Amino acid sequence: MDNSRGYHQIRMALEDEEKTAAFITKYGLYCWKVKPFGSKNAEATYQRMVNHIFADQIGCNMEICVHDMLFKSKIKADHLANLRETFNQLRKIRLNMNYEKCSFGVVFEKFLGYMISARGIEPNPNKIEALLEMKPPNSYKEVRKLTG
């Protein structure tokens, strides 16, 4: 699942709003009331928030990396119960998801550049295509160039 508008759903602390002044006009100071994208600590703040909200599920039936969530279950009934619990929690805290970017009931899914399935974690075929097509190195210099 993918979070919709990510950081813009995190309310700024009242005392921090003035620190994010976007611009000043004759009508007053305009500042962010929610976490702006590009903010130095936005990603860490968001990760802490979702880790706190879903602490009971992370590592058991859910993995989260910033705004991407992955659900895992061996039994369909468990999967549906876990999703129901998550959606109830999302509704309770008014956190919106981008349902157009969500996939449900899939056997495998791309997550953080890898393919996740019942077999485990595998490299994304699109990412390793260049390596598979590459000619093997023929000299020490070519090996060093390849490994950086």
Automatic annotation (TrEMBL):
CDD domains: RT_LTR. Pfam families: RVT_1. SUPFAM superfamilies: DNA/RNA polymerases (SSF56672). Residues 1-116 form the Reverse transcriptase domain. PANTHER family: REVERSE TRANSCRIPTASE DOMAIN-CONTAINING PROTEIN, TRANSPOSON TY3-I GAG-POL POLYPROTEIN. This is Reverse transcriptase domain-containing protein.
